Amino acid sequence: MKRIEINRKRLGVSLVIIGLILVLFALQGTFENKLKKAALMNSDLINLKKYSALNDKLIYNLPKEWVSKENDYSLSEVLYNNYFSDKLLDIHGYVEVWKDDGTLKTFVERSKDSAVKEYEYNNYVSSSSRINNKEAFEVSYTMDSAKLGYNAYEYYINLDNSVVKFSFFVGKDKNKENYSLLFKTIVETFSYNE
User: Fold this and answer.
1) Alpha helices of the chain — where are they, by DSSP H?
2) CA-wise closest residue to 165 among 102, 103, 107
């Protein structure tokens, strides 16, 4: 019969490391929420204003400092459109809800194909994800014209027979590293009550 010897020091160190990993894993959500709040504070956008659409089924928040204007597209596939901007930060964009019965991936591809032709698009990156337990796509790219250049961040979220699209455009000279986290934090404020 073979005798098994246990190195108590190695076992103790291994158990401590496993314990620390478990503690860090448990605290991950707390750190992530604090990091998102820090991104909002770092951009001086901590105060949010609540918006609702589609008979209060869709609710989301935007920074209070941003100017917004709802547009009516009652005769098109666009069920809702709210354009927003912040001239100081050189950020603009919109929140839209589109009627769509197809797959979210197909909608994202159609959106890419119908982009404004006056711009040159580069560094296009698209990845599937989940936002608030809904199927989503996150898209980023750069847009350049003879006069202007923008970094674009778009989020597509699948709803029943429709798609919510959050689009953020930042002037290239004003873009900051934390903007992608900031914009995703804003998008994650959305909720949809069916």
Assistant:
1) 8-42, 104-113, 179-187
2) 107
